[in-house]
Amino acid sequence: MSLAEKLDKIRSPKLQNQRETAVVLSAVEDTLKEQKHDATPTAYFAALLALLGQSVSTSNGIVNKELATSVVYLLDIVSPHVPAPLLRSKFSPILTSLAPVLTHSDIEAPLLRSSIGCLESLLVAQDSAAWALSQTQLSPRRATAGLLVLAVDHRPKVRKRAQDAITHVLQNAPPSPSLDHPAADMCAETALHNINDMAAASGKKKVKGHKHEEHQPGLMHALQLVKTIASASGGWPSKKIEPLCEVLMTISKSNNEYLTMAAFEIIEVVFASMADEVMSAKLPRLMEAISELRPSQNDSQLLPPWIAVISRGYDVSAQVSPQDTFQKLPEVFDMVSSFLASSSYNIRVSAAECLISFLVNCVPDAVILEPSIYDDKLLEKVATSAIALLSVKYQSAWMEVFTVLSALFSAFKWRSVGRLDEVVRIVGDLRGNDSFDSKNEADVVLGKAVEAMGPESVLETLPLNLAKPKVGQPGKAWLLPILRDHVQNTNLAHFRVEFVPLSEIMFQKVIDNGTSEKTMEIKIFETLVQQIWALLPGYCNLPLDLTTSFDQSFAEMLANLLYKQTELRTDLCRALQTLVESNEEIVSSEVSEKELLLHKRITKVHAQKNIEHLASFAGNLLAVLFNVYSQTLPQYRGYILQCINAYLSITPENELLETFNRVTMMLEAALADPTSQTQADKQGKKQSSDKMPPASHTLMDLIITLSVYLPRPTFPTLFSLAALIIPQSSDPQLQKKAYKLLPRLATSQTGTLALQDRNSELQSLLLTTASTVSAPARRDRLAAIAVVIDHLPQANLHFIPSILSEVVISAKEVNEKARTAAFDLLVLMAKKMSRGGQIDQSQIPHMASDAPVATASLEEFFTMVSAGLVGSTPHMVSASITALTRILYEFASQLPNAVIEDLVQTMDLFLTSSNREIVRSVLGFVKVAIISLPEAIIKPRLDTLVPGLMAWSREHKAHFRTKVKHIFERAIRRFGFDAIEKHCPEDDKKFIHNIRKSKERAKRHKAEGTENASAEQTERKKGKFESEYDEALYGSDSSSDTDSDASHGSDAEPSTNGKGSRTYITEDPDEPLDLLDRRSLAHISSRKPQPTKSAPTKQRKNKTDLDGKLVFGGDDDKDHDDDAMALDFDADGNNADVSLEGGINAYVDAIKGRDAVQRGRGGRLKFSNKREKSGGGGDDMDVDGEGDTKGRKKVRFSDAQPGGGAKEGRGKERIRGSGKSFARGRGGIEKRVERRGLAGKSAGSGGGGGGRGARGMKGGGRR
């Protein structure tokens, strides 16, 4: 910000405390105008100095505090723009004037910060002569001493301002031969003195028994000052490095983690500043000082941070002088590796991390690429030290040693061969021991060894022993998965020599088994064969000997395997694909040749030769792959097609043309073959997934794959094929594939040019085939239309209105992907129209030949889509509304308000339609409008929108009520409850109030931490929409989808962290859950467990009559008024009829009695409908209360319907509520009573049964 901008900001103050400064500035400017001086920084500076003398004096101190604050503030702003010679000449008077402010103990922070700023500008302007003056004089050194005192002030803002000033001063050193600022030594000495004093004071407090060691603000401030000086002066001054390291290592012993972190941050800053070539001269002295401070071998508190400092130091040293640092590597490697024998875990981990850092940073690339004899000796020393780490001495640290060995293989790369073979042997022997626990860590080391040394060297040390196992040398089949995951960039010949014969031996054993039942051994051999060929993709990842190893015989062997071994096709195709893609990646890489040689051991020239070599096999391989593709089921063809793509990209043009002509001829023959067409006709029927598709489908897939790589002369044939197949609706799948050709061509540059040249032909083809498109091909047709529109010239946009009606109708497709494609196409059309252009309306179908030329625009496109609102069918109107909704959501900000208002008004009218399909689309439009349109447009329409929506809130079909509720929830959120309620009809206000109560209840539950089930459903819905439009149209933040409050009592409890549902453990109160038991998983549930319902303490008492039959409706029993059903009890409160004999008789009667359920023919259940003739009472049954003759009701079962109620129209009284219970389930109430042992002794001897509806009670009459 310039000085003028800063002063302009002061002239218009926004705060009360800034007005005094504005008044002073105005007075200064008025004075300058009166004296006819220009408003230059020098003029401002002179005027402000005069005012400073009036407000602050050396004898009286601060005379006028308000004026002094404003003047010093303005001086702070002006002084950086004043010429340096003037500042140097005025140094003494300004410092004398500011001295009372800087030295006063009770001065306010704003004035002090401004004074520090003035002092900063003065010190930056001083030259070497001024800095040479002693601190006892009125000199820059004396002023710097004052800044150092303020840099540890207890006030944060003052301290920060002083530290920034010191940083600025030290970074702007005057010209001199020294690397450091003249004041750097003084600053470092003062800072060290402060730290020593604070550390000593902290030690005294600890001795006296103060426990609050973490409260040491003074020491933290002193450390911050040291960090400031170290970062500002290009590293700590050379002469002060030793005392700094000593005090920092002492502080790092503290239990206060903040102090330890601050100490190491300072060391980090010092090292970072020395990474510069100019400052790197200080690095050896610093490393020497740190090495001399080595703690004792078992100091678990101080040793880890010291190791970390050493690691960082050698990292910086490797950046500055890599070769010299590498020469020290064996020595420091031995020094740090000795700490791995420590009993402290922290020391071992720190040592391992330090060794890994050495290996990553201190081994130069030149040592790996072109090592000298001396470099080889150094590598041997490091390798010997690493092998020693696998001795028994370091057994407790083997986990850390394994990580170091992994880093060692990665650092040495192929130079590991011959040097680290012993590591491979020892780790392999450990891994093969069944009692060894750290197999995963050993696998990582061996995997790194495979990557660095190659599988050949590893297998020489650790042979597999699978083909001819020897006694005492078990097989190492566990090496195969390790090889599979880590083999790369090696010799392909090793696979041919080592693994192809092994695979033949294993497979021969499988063949020898013949058709006999497979034993476990045979299954193991089959698995070994698959694991062996799973290695081939790794061997094909940038092989070093591709041109010599991949010959005709190897290619023929792979072809035979592709034909015969279907289970190996995945690995074989992936290997062939990797051969091409890995070399193409190198050719297109922008990495330097040196990096490629270091990491891939191959150059771009070598990779290009590999591709040319593979191209010589491409024609034959493609023929094999095409045949295999035609023999494979469609669901398993994906990987074959990817392999075909890879080889098509490198096939020479002449072979590509031959292949294309051959496939085209076969496709034409297949299309002309009536047998093939018959199969194609069957595609409309449901086929099994294991049936091969017609040949025409397979050949069309190959044509589509070929199309991207074909030259321009073949495109007429391609387009003629598309024109031949697209009109044929008899084969939907073939038509679908033909439409895919256009989007496929658009992915290549040559295809894009062809699409532009043939755009008019494609337009005609798409317009003429609109009536023949099948439903499965709809989405791909829309994608093809999108390609044509994307390549339309702006002067010829008549295709958009010609095809628009089809796109709009597609917005109502059943298939979701087709709908999405239609929406995307509508947006693409709108963007194309918004760029302008011409629309020749005379070329639009059904338009007059003299129709004028229209100008393309976004408003014109909306007008075209709106034409569908007058469609003849509700489906067309609904589709047009849906299309308008989509493009309005996308382009609302680009449309004039008048167009949007007309749309909203039109939809307001459609809201009154009686057609549900139209209204459903209108509801979507209203929801999008409420969410995305400006409030000024929607709010005036609420008086008609709200009543219109309310009219559909009573419609439950198609979720209309739910949709309307969602819309009102969003409207209330945006416009407020009062605005919506004001326009709501009186009869519907209850609906609005229900929404408000639901929201308030949801907020209340959320505040209480117990959300309801509907809130959980809302959380689950988040993130399921593919676009913002779908979320706006279909999403909802509603807490409930219904007006019922029943959902609030759901058992499900939502997640409180929003990341997933909770997990609960159900425990048995009598036995604790054993987490080591496998059955414990059955006790883990995602639903909150409910407390087990215990049996009631008091048995329910059911009312019965004298015969033991249940009695309903009786209300005169004063003793059991609260029971819905009560039995007869004696004077002691016991049921007279409930006995063991009665229970047994009831059970036997229920199983073998007259009314027992029996199974007839076919296993169907049969019920007895025979009526009892004994017992009197006939067909009548009295239902009465106990001892109440007035309440007796008579019902004839002969008139009962199967539901249990009496026939209507017979004058008989209906038993209320009995229609379901009599005929339900397993015999109704009477059966339930029998199962509980509550039926009377003579339950089966009553009379007057009959009718299916009366089977629920036994004994229709009274005895």
Automatic annotation (TrEMBL):
The name this protein goes by in its record: Ribosomal RNA-processing protein 12-like conserved domain-containing protein
Principal cellular location given in the protein's record: nucleus
UniProt entry keywords in alphabetical sequence: Nucleus
Positions of the RRP12 N-terminal HEAT domain: 14-278
Sequence segments annotated as region (Disordered): 674-694, 998-1124, 1153-1263
PANTHER family: ARM REPEAT SUPERFAMILY PROTEIN
Family: Belongs to the RRP12 family.
Feature: compositional bias, Basic and acidic residues: 1017-1027, 1207-1216, 1227-1237
Subcellular location: Nucleus
Biased amino acid composition, Polar residues: 1053-1064, 1087-1097
Domain RRP12 HEAT: residue ranges: 342-632
Start-end of Gly residues biased regions: 1243-1263
Organism (species): Stereocaulon virgatum
Gene3D superfamilies: Leucine-rich Repeat Variant
Protein's UniProt keywords contain Nucleus: yes
